[in-house]
Amino acid sequence: MTSGHALSSAEIAKRAKSNLALALACLPEARRRDMISFYAFCRLADDIADSATLSEEEKETQLGHWKKCVLSSESTGHAVLDEVIELPDKYGFPRAWLAEVIDGVASDIKHTRYETFEQLQAYCYQVASVVGLVSIHIFGHKNPQAAEYAIQLGYALQMTNIIRDVGEDARETGRIYLPMEDLKKFQVTEAEILKGQSSERFTRLMEFQYRRARSFYDEAAKLLPPEDRDTLLASQMMGQIYSEILEKLKRTRFPVFDHRCRLSKPRKAWILGTYLIRGWLARQRA
After folding, report:
1. Which domains does the chain have, with CATH numbers?
2. Band of the pLDDT at 25, cuts 50, 70, 90?
3. 29 exposure class (CB count in 10 Å sphere: 0-12, 13-18, 19+)
């Protein structure tokens, strides 16, 4: 558990082909490097929790070790961990945030259902909003209000993930992140979701989740401080990509059991290009 990982942070980010890794392209080089280290940390922690080869006990032991490492800030010999444990002192955020991200992904090991939205929201806070809080410190935000922006955007992004991945999560892990109280409200059974059965009831359930996610995007947009529009370009890019995925899901009536909803490559390239230009202009102004 303390030996170096075979892949570097940059290689992990490249292999993941995620929207976040794409968004980091509009950051200055040093901040981009540190964000890639943080992204790799989140990715590897998530991979431990989702591993098909480790037992529950092994997963919990490994993540417990990681948590101890980030809280103690001692060198571990693990390439990615050693990069990440330097970030709290460098950017002035609490080490406890890194531990909270680990606690969030660790909850996936045994937690496969959420009774209420409040319970789900607490999970979203750990795996997405705290990631946002760490990110805005690395981005170099100026206004403290940016913290609330990051929290709300984290909820929006994670709810979009949950909506998009309903079919995949049920099929591959048996997890249902949609709150059980909402399933009851719209008379959708767990069995229907696990079998991938769509219906008008299911579509109404998903429209309800869509409105919830949309409200978080709207709230985040209101909270973005004007003086941080340049520094938080990467998070705005993430927000645009995921917001467009959410709208596409609604437009196509949530075909989440058929395929994973994505934006087209030309559309993603256009968004990336737009934000790269904005990033270049911001650096000229700085």
Report:
1. 1-110 (no CATH), 112-286 (1.10.600.10)
2. confident
3. exposed
